């Protein structure tokens, strides 16, 4: 029999063994009263700390926990030993290391834990997307359990980025009310030179299938879109928007969002964040003092001002719920978006489509806030992890050397005027920037729908700011069927694609491969999309999502037929609009039976089915897809009592 490396390596070194070793030298720095009062767990924890190599003489230091979404195995020289799910979490271990060394230098003891996260870009168009949104709740629970499982920690530093890992971390930190907590955003990747950005590159397959690019072009562009190996994508999608929201909430240091991954300024943020956390602990400031109704308001204002991802309509209420605060409603979002102008020209919204790293150099979140302060839209008394109020942070920023030098750097590096990236309200209005999100009603969405109106192609919007579109419905019961129709050219300009059955009932997968294809294929801007699912933060176009009730809840969207006339009206200035089926018989669409295309998806796993049921009982997608423990426990109690009563037990 030939040698089988699965059974035998052939190495003699494996037989060099021992069963005992001396153990760590030294002694625990214990006093008599201290030892008498110690729990067995705390004492054994000290024993294990020494066993892991920590200097026993330094075990009386305060303990701080560093949590992250790190993924992959990265060699010290940066080469991959095992890949992560995405570039966003590939380098965040370097931030953890900087923070941990800072804690140690301050006489504290750092601990570290990890809950890695998936990549929405990697799972788009695959069965993996059915786990994406559900993962967020699971990860937040695990993060919180890890925090509570180190009972001696004095504060928590979260290091995270990307579409679900960062919202999960924010939910976990916001729910840790009695400890200080600081968020270190994982930063953004650089633009690649002479290459497509990470949003457009995802449409290569659709463009190739339609004969719009060559195979050689697709192969080259697909290889080189990432300008650096770490950081979130280059556009104001869910990952970047979540960083902005974290800073606006006061959980991240001023000018912490969107820093270039791997750069010294990015590492410096981790060190300063560790110092900030130790200072908060000394002063007795906890997350309860930071995450308040005022900070949630500021987060919603910044979301609108940067033209952020519609996914934050799911995540901000979830963060508020975790903190025990009132969840923002659709009416709250509509009110904020009506008041707050979009001030930032950034991918994917335009008009010039700057990258997120250029927004950072232009001044990032605090620069946007200076303009919002002038408009009276911020609650400046909100406390932040800097140890100062938001208003005090902005006073520092306005006269800081950091602001001046980084804005000059943008001019030097890219020849871009920072005031063309982050604008005053007047300048933004002159440049045609419209507000971010419009919430819709109509006979297809009795409980509401939304559209990222700032991302609708300007050439299809009238001089009055109104987008009008009426066309025949093309109904699809799956994302696979919809993308195949686009690739085959079977959907024509003027059509309205109606994608049904992908709402919260099956995990609410995002549909970026559809929306990105419509942006980048020829005449795609003249095709509209209506769905009960959600979109990637980088989605553009007349894409109407979150249609409620969803098809699986009996909503009228599940009863539309091919050829129905769909009328869309979106006022991008007044931020109001409708989505309707017109010209139907008496009784309307709601009186019909479901479209035969609405079929159960056998790929939906039991974990996601349970997530769907729990979040539905807790307020559904408009409530942030959270788990409301008290309501769920109450419903289960009544159901169990009713079952026992009916069975006579």
UniProtKB/TrEMBL annotation:
Which residue intervals define the domain Dihydroxy-acid/6-phosphogluconate dehydratase N-terminal in the entry? 86-393
Query: This protein's superkingdom?
Result: Bacteria
Sorted UniProt keywords = Lyase
Is Lyase included in the keywords of this UniProt record? Answer: yes
GO cellular component: a single term: cytosol
Stated EC number for the protein is: 4.2.1.9
Report whether Acetylation shows up as a keyword of the record.
Answer: no
Q: Which GO terms describe its molecular function?
A: dihydroxy-acid dehydratase activity; xylonate dehydratase activity
Pfam families in UniProt = ILV_EDD_C, ILVD_EDD_N
Listed InterPro entries: Dehydratase_YjhG/YagF, Dihydro-acid_dehy_C, DiOHA_6PGluconate_deHydtase_CS, ILV_EDD_C, ILV_EDD_N, IlvD/EDD_N
| Residues passing through the membrane, by range | none
Q: Outline the extent of the Dihydroxy-acid/6-phosphogluconate dehydratase C-terminal domain.
A: 434-580
Protein family per UniProt: Belongs to the IlvD/Edd family.
Instruction: Indicate what this protein is called per its UniProt record.
Output: Dihydroxy-acid dehydratase
Which organism's genome codes for this protein?
A: Sorangium cellulosum (strain So ce56)
Q: Which gene encodes it?
A: ilvD3
């Amino acid at each position: 029999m030939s040698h089988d490396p699965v059974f035998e390596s052939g190495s003699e070194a494996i037989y060099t063994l021992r069963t005992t070793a001396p153990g760590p030298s030294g002694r625990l720095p214990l006093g008599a009263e201290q030892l008498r009062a110690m729990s067995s767990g705390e004492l054994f924890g000290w024993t294990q700390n020494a066993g892991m190599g920590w200097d026993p003489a330094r075990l009386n230091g305060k303990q701080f926990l560093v949590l992250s979404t790190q993924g992959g195995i990265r060699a010290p020289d940066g080469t991959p030993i095992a890949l992560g799910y995405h570039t966003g979490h590939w380098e965040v271990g370097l931030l953890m290391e900087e923070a941990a060394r800072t804690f140690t230098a301050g006489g504290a003891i750092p601990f570290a834990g990890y809950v890695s996260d998936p990549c929405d870009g990697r799972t788009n168009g695959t069965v993996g997307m059915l786990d994406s949104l559900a993962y967020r709740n699971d990860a937040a629970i695990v993060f919180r359990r890890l925090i509570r499982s180190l009972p001696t920690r004095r504060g928590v530093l979260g290091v995270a980025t990307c579409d679900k890992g960062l919202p999960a971390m924010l939910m976990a930190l916001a729910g840790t009310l009695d400890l200080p907590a600081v968020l270190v955003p994982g930063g953004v990747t650089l633009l690649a030179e002479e290459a497509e950005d990470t949003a457009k590159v995802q449409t290569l397959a659709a463009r190739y299938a339609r004969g719009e690019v060559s195979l050689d072009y697709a192969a080259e562009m697909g290889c080189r879109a990432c300008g650096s190996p770490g950081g979130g994508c280059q556009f104001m999608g869910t990952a970047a928007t979540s960083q902005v929201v974290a800073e606006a909430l006061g959980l991240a240091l001023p000018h912490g969002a969107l820093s270039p991954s791997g750069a010294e300024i990015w590492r410096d943020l981790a060190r300063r964040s560790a110092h900030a956390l130790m200072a908060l602990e000394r002063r007795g400031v906890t997350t309860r003092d930071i995450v308040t109704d005022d900070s949630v308001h500021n987060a919603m204002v910044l979301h609108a001002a940067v033209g952020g991802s519609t996914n934050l309509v799911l995540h901000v209420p979830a963060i508020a719920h975790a903190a025990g605060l009132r969840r923002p409603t659709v009416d709250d979002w509509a009110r904020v978006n009506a008041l707050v102008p979009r001030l930032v020209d950034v991918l994917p919204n335009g008009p010039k489509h700057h990258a997120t790293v250029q927004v950072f150099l232009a001044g990032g979140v605090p620069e946007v806030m200076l303009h919002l302060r002038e408009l009276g839209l911020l609650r400046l008394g909100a406390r932040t992890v800097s140890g100062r109020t938001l208003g005090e942070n902005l006073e520092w920023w306005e006269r800081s050397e950091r602001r001046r030098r980084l804005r000059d750097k943008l001019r030097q590096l890219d020849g871009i005027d920072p005031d063309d990236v982050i604008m005053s309200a007047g300048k933004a209005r002159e440049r045609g920037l419209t507000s971010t999100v419009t919430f819709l009603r109509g006979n297809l969405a009795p409980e509401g729908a939304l559209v990222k109106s700032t991302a609708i192609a300007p050439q299809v919007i009238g001089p009055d700011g109104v987008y009008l579109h009426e066309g025949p419905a093309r109904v699809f019961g799956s994302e696979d069927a919809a993308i195949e129709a686009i690739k085959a050219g079977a959907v024509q300009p003027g059509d309205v694609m109606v994608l049904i059955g992908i709402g919260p009932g099956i995990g609410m997968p995002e549909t970026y491969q559809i929306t990105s294809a419509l942006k980048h294929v020829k005449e795609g801007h003249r095709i509209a999309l209506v769905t009960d699912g959600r979109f990637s933060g980088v989605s553009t176009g007349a894409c109407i999502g979150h249609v409620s009730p969803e098809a699986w809840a009996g909503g009228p969207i599940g009863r539309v037929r091919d050829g129905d006339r769909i009328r869309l009206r979106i006022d991008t200035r007044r931020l109001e609009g409708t989505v309707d089926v017109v010209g139907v018989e008496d009784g309307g669409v709601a009186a019909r039976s479901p479209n035969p295309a609405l079929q159960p998806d056998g790929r939906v796993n039991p974990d996601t089915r349970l997530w769907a049921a729990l979040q539905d009982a807790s307020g559904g997608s408009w409530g942030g897809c959270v788990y409301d423990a008290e309501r769920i426990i109450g419903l289960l109690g009544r159901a169990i009592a009713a079952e026992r009563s009916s069975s006579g037990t």
